[in-house]
Amino acid sequence: MRINPISTISDVENLVQSGIEALRNLPLSEEIALALQYIAPEGYLPVIQLEEHGRKKRSTAAASNWSPETGEIHIYFEKKKSDSGQPKGTVAPILSPSIAAAPPPQTVHGARASAARQVTSVEPVTAAEVAQCCQALNQAENSGRHFIAIKWFRDAFLTAQGFPWTASDQRRQQVLAHAIETGRIQSKKIPNPRSPQFPTTTITLNRSVSTPAIAPRFQPVPVRGEPVSATLIRDRGTL
What we know:
This protein has helices at about 10-20, 30-40, 110-120, 125-140, 150-155, 170-180, 230-235, and strands spanning about 45-50, 55, 70-80, 95, 185-190, 200-205. The chain is of the alpha+beta class. The radius of gyration is 25 Å and the shape is elongated.
């Protein structure tokens, strides 16, 4: 079978979808066959979304804009259409890389409606969570590392902090994405010597924005004597 060149995000999503579907026709070991009931459940069509920082990548964007270093592949399932052409819509969302079985949700009219409902049900990020995230980043920056990779910080360092919300992969991603969107944390890409085609996304704390329990980078220095303004006012009369 001839595979078309991969140039856009949409091409990658279609390729992953085709690859999952192709697993059904391959000779598989017993272990893989058992896993297949969750990766490619019978009667369902896999739908693939490439995301980064909690946002879906634009379908027409270049495929190189998605990186396994910072990106995620989200997989959910749409019920295959019956002979009458009407979908029997149930959706079972699965997040990569941690693939877990989910109980069948209630019948909905299409997977998109179900996915939208799940997004709106997520609790808003709180100011306390953002402050704790910033405090953790401040601690990481003071540990002597040359840079802070966003994936390492999110999936390793944050989980070790013991905050209740850091136990959830989705919540850690949501809080960190909110902190970046609101300017509390800044991100940038740096060259990756091991994989030049996949730059590493790093993060730094925006110290120009006040965060509780974090001292600003520059502290006022007390000066002995009277205020400079008082000296200027007094000397103005002698000029």
